[in-house]
Amino acid sequence: MGKIIIYEHANFQGLSREFTTNISDLKDADWNDCISSVKVIGHPWVAYQHADYKGHLLVLEEGDHDFVGKKMNDRISSLQVITENLHNPQITLYEHADYQGKSRVIREATNLARGHDNDTTSSHKVQSGVWLLCEHSDGGGFQYLAREHEHLPNYKRERENGCSSSRVSCLR
């Protein structure tokens, strides 16, 4: 399955701690809001700004991350491992809420800003894999992690979870 090693300072300096399972509140491990770099071995992990996997998120793929970035530095409060099979991913995007209107099946990382479907998606169904939906084509703005077998009928109602109505420009 793999693990994540977290460090209190950039460039893998200072105290460190290793996790192999999800941790919904880093306060329980005395590591809340003090992570600056990480090493990921095996499956990817998601770092969240708030406890219980809420708030801004950062997807951390396998490898060494010598700095978690300005946005998340010393602001990580929960960690979650991605256990889904990432081979042959598939998501269906729908133009309108409740899976209505034009639909499009996506099977690979796609920049919607370069086509007709930029900022027109209002709901989705994930058939397989895990998808990072981003508001901006560069991966910035609101981000939402869509997991296998998840159905999200209305982005407008899910704004607090990271989606913003009809504003998906990039999928990874």
Automatic annotation (TrEMBL):
Family: Belongs to the beta/gamma-crystallin family.
GO terms, molecular function: structural constituent of eye lens
Coiled-coil spans in chain: none
Organism from which the protein derives: Serinus canaria
Residue span(s) of domain Beta/gamma crystallin 'Greek key': 2-42, 43-83, 89-128
Protein name: Beta/gamma crystallin 'Greek key' domain-containing protein
Keywords attached to this entry: Repeat
GO biological processes: lens development in camera-type eye; visual perception
PROSITE patterns the UniProt entry points to: CRYSTALLIN_BETA_GAMMA
